[in-house]
What does this fold into?
Amino acid sequence: MTPKNQKQIETAVRTILQAVGEDPDREGLVGTPVRVAKMYGELFAGLGTDPATHLDVTFNEQYDEMVILRDISFYSMCEHHLLPFMGKAHVAYLPNGKVVGLSKLARVVEDFARRPQLQERLTSQIADLLMERLDAKGAAVIIEASHTCMTIRGVKKPGATMVTSAIRGQFRTSPATRSEAMDLLTGGRR
It folds into this structure.
């Protein structure tokens, strides 16, 4: 995917290379501005999408148990340092007369992740969209991720995992439902 302002990104990358003391015209760096601009087009592709469209097609189904999709791999870019964070999203919802194809849940995660992001916001955006678009009785999202802004710079603590959760509807109001959801979402690793 090509970003909207590819030439502007290429110019900015050349400027950064010069600012750190590199020669953007040396053999190994000549194509770097173009490569970085193309990479940004891919990494930030979610800026040009509406994740809600993945939930437009639903199926009427009187299923009143949890629907859970675990271990959805994702990567995103921390908006504070423009460094990647990556991990797994675990998504659950309680249907209210309609269900959605499982791949659509993964697509929602993907679209929200492919933009400058905070893990906390990403977690909430997914849960809120499920509640809104599916009219779900409840939604629960847990995200576990490793942040390179913490592992390769600053405090330099590789192996640390950030865990965030967003709990909505009956998952929040019913302790038994919440407990069951947490066990299923985490695979019993609590």
User: Anything to note?
Assistant: The chain has a mean pLDDT of 95. Residues 119-134 form the longest helix (16 residues). The radius of gyration is 20 Å.
